[in-house]
Amino acid sequence: MNKSTILAVAAIALIGGFALSWHAHVNRAIELESGVWFGEQARALPEFQLVEHNGSKLTRESLQGKWSLMFFGYTHCPDICPISLQTLADMVRAIDDPHVADALKVYFVSVDPARDQPQVLADYVTYFNPDFIGATAPLEQLTPLTRSLGIAHALRNQTEGSEQYDVDHSAAIVLINPRAEYAGLFGAPQDAAKMARDMTRIIERNPL
Amino acid sequence: MNPRLILPLLLLTLLFPASAFAELDVSDARIKHLPPTVPVRAGYMTLRNPGAQAVTIVAVQSDAFASVEIHRSYMQDGMMRMDPVDSLTIEPGETLQLAPGGLHLMMMQPAEATRPGDSIEIVLEFDDGTEQRLTLEVVK
């Protein structure tokens, strides 16, 4: 084996080692108070493309580099969805460490793209927290993402000729790590204080 | 009837419109505020039936909304669901809560933008044809 081959192998091993250690780093074992942490079982998201309420694209790549919490709902849901969004807003306010808060983004993904136009989504999510991001996409683009996250959604109580219907949807809040992997979830009903402590623990132990 | 009685009787009916025969004690009646473009609001309240008869609400109306329905949110198999409810019966002495995460008024398409602190009048319609007016406060 010549010298340059040895160097190349060493370099690859070094890079691979870093990659592995970082991979372990974002997924190290953590005990959560209020959620489920997948640890090493974190799963890469498929490619997807949604549109954020300000018009920019939301893709797997754009989730990289931050921790993301994603809640699925729709604006014609006046009872449960505001409760969950209020819980998320309270959670963000309960995080003391500004580095933790900076490392975290909150998304409200509408599973009712037919009715949830960008302006409605924008007004709805930013009412709870000006940094929250609303996003949606036609169902054929939305479903690959929701399916990969185990989030179900289906129209119900639909009557012909009426705009009125309900959308059943999973109540869980999904956690995505800075590598855009599905890393955990918080089942309903969520508790803002516990989630804030959990997110602090996760992000402090896995700095960006 | 003695014609001289008609005027006093008419005045009496003015003094006691339908709302004077209110059948439910209402407390904590409120609407969760949302931005004006958001088309739906939830209304909550506590209803107590102080009477000796069961009271059944069959419809809710408000001039401030295109329509108002009674809905119930619930969780089933990890799914959040919501269904319309045809009527609500409150037995004598019973209290019924319309509260976040359960029964609520689904108030659709506000006629005007509402703000926290606003008072919104609604009418509960009962199965015996009577009705009760009450006021909900818009809360943050």
Overview of this protein structure:
The complex is a heterodimer of chains A (208) and B (140). Chain A is an alpha+beta fold. Chain A is built from six helices and eleven strands. In chain A, helix 4 (118-128) links the parallel strand 6 (104-110) and strand 7. Chain B has 140 residues and is mainly beta. In chain B, strands 1, 2, 3, 4, 5, 6, 7, 8, 9 and 10 form a ten-stranded mixed beta sheet that branches. Helices cover 9% and strands 53% of the residues of chain B. Chain A binds chain B through residues 73, 75-80, 82-83, 115, 119-120, 123-124, 127, 152, 156-157, 164, 166, 168-172, 187-189, and chain B through 32, 34-42, 71, 73, 75, 78-84, 100-102, 104, 106-108. Strand 9 (166-170) of chain A pairs antiparallel with strand 5 (79-84) of chain B.
Give the SSE layout:
The complex is a heterodimer of chains A (208) and B (140).
Chain A: H1 3-26, E1 36-37, E2 43-44, E3 49-52, E4 57-59, E5 67-73, H2 80-94, H3 98-102, E6 104-110, H4 118-128, E7 133-136, H5 139-148, E8 153-156, E9 166-170, E10 173-176, E11 181-186, H6 192-205
Parallel strand pairs in A: 5-6, 6-7
Antiparallel strand pairs in A: 1-11, 2-11, 3-4, 3-7, 5-10, 8-9, 10-11
Chain B: H1 3-15, E1 25-32, E2 40-48, E3 55-61, E4 65-76, E5 79-84, E6 88-90, E7 95-98, E8 103-110, E9 119-126, E10 131-139
Parallel strand pairs in B: 1-10
Antiparallel strand pairs in B: 1-2, 2-7, 2-8, 3-6, 3-9, 4-5, 4-8, 9-10
Task: Name a few traits of the molecule.
heterodimer, A: 208 residues, two-stranded antiparallel ribbon, 6 helices, 38% helix, B: 140 residues, mainly beta, 1 helix, 10 strands, 9% helix, globular
Question: With helices defined by DSSP (H or I, 4 residues minimum), what is the helix count of chain A?
Answer: 6
Uncertain residue segments of chain A: none
The rounded Rg of chain B comes to: 18 Å
Low confidence ranges of chain B: none
How many distinct beta strands of chain B?
10
Mean pLDDT of chain A: 90
Oligomer: heterodimer
> Helical proportion of chain B?
under 10%
Largest protein interface? A-B, 28 and 27 residues
**How would you describe the shape of chain A?**
globular
Distance between the ends of chain A: 38 Å
Calculate the terminal CA-CA distance of chain B, rounded to whole Å. Answer: 55 Å
| Fraction in beta strands of chain B | over 45%
- By DSSP (H or I, 4+ residues per run), the number of helices of chain B equals 1
Which sequence of SSEs, written as H and E, runs from N to C of chain B? Answer: HEEEEEEEEEE
Structural class of chain A: alpha+beta
In one word, what is the shape of chain B?
globular
Largest sheet of chain A: 9 strands, mixed
What portion of residues of chain A is helical?
25-40%
What's the Cα radius of gyration of chain A?
A: 19 Å
